[in-house]
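TEACHING EXERCISE
Course module: macromolecular assemblies
Task: Read the component lines below, then compare them to the predicted structure of the full complex.
Student: A.B.
Group: 4
Components provided:
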Amino acid sequence: MTVNQISVFVENKSGALAQIAGELGGAGVNMRALSIAETPDFGVLRFIADKEELAADVLRRTGHVLTITPVLAVALKDEPGSFARVMGLLADAGIDVEYVYTFLTPRPGSACMVFRVADNVLAEKVLTDAGVELATAEEFD
Amino acid sequence: MLIIKGVNVFPSQIETVLLNKGYQANYLITVDRVNNSDTLDIDVEMTPEMFSDNLSVVSAREKELVNALKAMLGIYARVHLVSPKSITRSEGKAVRVIDKRKLI
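Instructor-supplied answer key:
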């Protein structure tokens, strides 16, 4: 039960990110989850859109380079210790975590996080077996 | 042909390096002189083949490019990854080189 995340190359130049945001906003795309990763030379904007195909289409037409990565959207209980619990479950199963970031949730009482892990299938099994809830792609629409 | 740091540099050499790596990329060479020393900067447009969600993969590819250029040109060039389609395409001959050195 993965969700598709779009990753776009962002040049290390003033206005580059603003331009991408403008293109998406102008097309009516709502970014539901978002994170920026940077190196000294460039950045990567990672986001989950309400309209994935429209977002990818808009960006490709304006000439951007992007990839689509399946990630897990975990709905954590919004209380201390819940993140530690999920990280513990993944660590015990030997699943490497590449990155995580949080986002607004349509679920009251939950803190949602995107997890990019080395093994989506195993991670999903480990988490759902432990009663951890995953959000579906439909919830982002 | 340019002479940079006493070395002959042909823009087509940069094109060869990029194509050998499988990158159909546009590039722009900027030559300048800083503190009496020639500098070589190459803007390379990002391509789908170069990109990845994994930052360390992209950085590694950038580094490989720098090394391949050094091997081909004999001198070290600073590579800057830029947005696709950001290097001006002109009608007719593409502008590949900007030489800012004030040579007599």
